[in-house]
Amino acid sequence: MNPLRVAAVFRRIVAQFRRDPRSLALLFVAPLAIIALLGWVLGSQSAASARIAVVNESANAGAGTVVTRLQSALEGQPGITMVRSVADDSTARQMLKDKQLDLVVVLPADFSLQSRKIDVLTLGINPTGEYGALPAIQKALISAVADSSVGGALPTVERTTVYGSPNATQLDSLAPVVVGFFAYFFVFILTGISFLRERIGGTLERLLATPVSRAEIVLGYSLGFGFFATLQVAIVLAFVLGRLGIPALGPVPTFAIGLGVHTAGNPLLAYLLVLVLGLGAVSLGIFLSTFARTELQILQFIPIVIVPQGLLGGFFWPIEGLPNLLQPVARVLPVTYAIDGLRQVMIAGADLGSPQVLLDLGVLTAIAAVFVVLAAATIRREVA
Amino acid sequence: MTFAATPQPAVEATALRKDFGEIRAVDGIDMSLPPGRIYGLLGPNGSGKTTLIRLLMGLASATSGTVKVLGVEMPSRANLSRIGYMTQADGIYPELSVWENLTFFAALYGQTDKTQLHAALELVELDTRANTPAQNLSGGMRRRLSMACALAHHPTVIFLDEPTVGVDPALRVQFWEHFHRLAADGATLLVSSHVMDEADRCDELLFIRDGHVLAQGTSAELRRRAGTDNIETAFLWFATDLGAATGAGATSATSPKETSR
């Protein structure tokens, strides 16, 4: 191992990037733009307005009181517009179809203060979005029925969580995932394409005709792309965790840069996790570039390599919730461990003393090591 | 030019064979090239020239047979620092400047002497283009940069795979003048080409076809044996069965260097 040769490879990669503004933009601007968009969408979701009507189909004496109280309780909720003049269930259904209503609370014909069964009616086209107002309705319902003198003994329902707060937005739980995932994705794509160009451009042939060793090439690449991954993750983490208020200036209103997501644990530990993940992605990129002949074929690895990690890695669903057959698959994907580790650190506030975080770090390191060996093995692979 | 009684060959191959699946790209080549000369590797496209060069450098692993360069059995990573290789493709980084390309490859060879690097650039007349990105160079300039990258570390054995393809005639003359200076300084050059009119510029020729060395000798000698003045006709004569029979004898009989010029 000759440090001078490793340094030469490292310096060359940095120089190449400096002269390739588009790749730099992909590395630094694209993740920020996507995360900012995500923050914008998710952050404003609680304020999504819902038009709600309460319909009474019941002849029960107490039902009228419940309806009135429900309506006034709902009216106090942010983002909820009460539509009062809805006569019955069928009118409500029509108004849902006509997009005049988003959600209808129905006290059914068999409603009684004993059963307290109510129905919630939505259009059903986008169930997740349509039920966005449900927590507000539950809250209003509890207060409505509790206030009602006829209510009797009600179970008090209150949401509590061990970590974070019950008011945590989707953004808080997604932020760790997004940080890890983007680092992996961009580093993989850029290394893959960059090394593919070495292979098809004849420069790899030339590299191998020099005394440089495979280990020196892989190490130089890891340092070069690791350097940019380091910068990228630092910027992305700063953007996700920080929040810089910009005061109003002339016609520009007050706005904030950064998402201001709260991290319970040490940001440096989160950083370390993403870095190890990124180093694995460098070697994966080198390794998979063997199996591609064109840049387009590198992009074809996205649905094979990147998308499954997004689906199975705990991005949307917990691993434990996956079908039994898919669970072992998820457990060999590096992103799974990065997401778990990042959530442990950023949400649960785990530190290096946590066996869970140590396991995640250990597995990520092992996966990176395996791909370093695989990458090195493919470098002398003969090209006919 | 005189040599010691048994000069160590710069490049030596014994029963070298390379199969790509069913295809036999190099089929039992024996060669022994004494140092300080320019050897022309002549043959049509697909005759196995590039594969042979890659085998000689240890970039491809031989199916059987051995290769020694400067007395060291290949592949040997350490030995590569004494070897220069100009690939058929330019093999330079288009985003990097001329200077960055040169310093990168030189650093891998352990050559960090800036005076030497500047001299290498001057030699290929790119000294005024040092800061130009390689992608903005003309095809001929890229070829020259590629050559500078192959020679900046002063190799003793130099493999040049079709170095003059796409190079204009004036520059081609300069290339060859430079090759002869290198050989005069003791370097051994193996230059592949499918352009037969470059044959006369080499000290010695190796006719290659279908992974065989058809014949080896000076241009004049080979033409005389084939009974023609034209090197192309000579090649075709050796490529026939009759020529192959006579040529095969010549291949193994090259070690005693009767070919002084």
Explain what you see.
The complex is a heterodimer of chains A (384) and B (261). With 384 residues, chain A is an alpha/beta fold. In chain A, a hairpin with an 8-residue loop joins strand 5 and strand 6. In chain A, helix 7 packs antiparallel against helix 9. About 3% of the residues of chain A have low confidence. Chain B is 34% helix and 23% strand. In chain B, the strands form two sheets. In chain B, strands 6-7-8-3-9-10 form a six-stranded mixed beta sheet, sandwiched between helices. In chain B, strands 2-1-4-5 form a four-stranded antiparallel beta sheet, with helices on one face. Classes of the chains: A alpha/beta (384), B alpha/beta (261). At the A-B interface, helix 1 and helix 8 of A face helix 2 of B.
Which short descriptors sum up this protein?
heterodimer, A: 384 residues, alpha/beta, abc type-2 transporter like fold, four-stranded mixed sheet, two-stranded antiparallel ribbon, 15 helices, B: 261 residues, four-stranded antiparallel sheet, 8 helices, 10 strands, disordered C terminus
Summary of the model, kept short:
The complex is a heterodimer of chains A (384) and B (261). By secondary structure, chain A is of the alpha/beta class. Helix content of chain A is 59%, strand content 7%.
The fraction of residues in strands of chain A falls at 5-15%
Give the N-to-C terminal Cα separation of chain A. 28 Å
Helix content of chain A: 55-70%
Run of helices and strands of chain A: HHEHEHEEHHHHHEEHHHHHH
Q: H/E element string of chain B?
A: EEEHEEEHHHEHEEEHHH
Give the number of DSSP strands of chain B: 10
Give the uncertain stretches of chain B in residue-range form. 247-261
Largest sheet of chain B: 6 strands, mixed
- Number of DSSP strand runs of chain A: 6
Oligomeric state of shown chains: heterodimer
Helix content of chain B: 25-40%
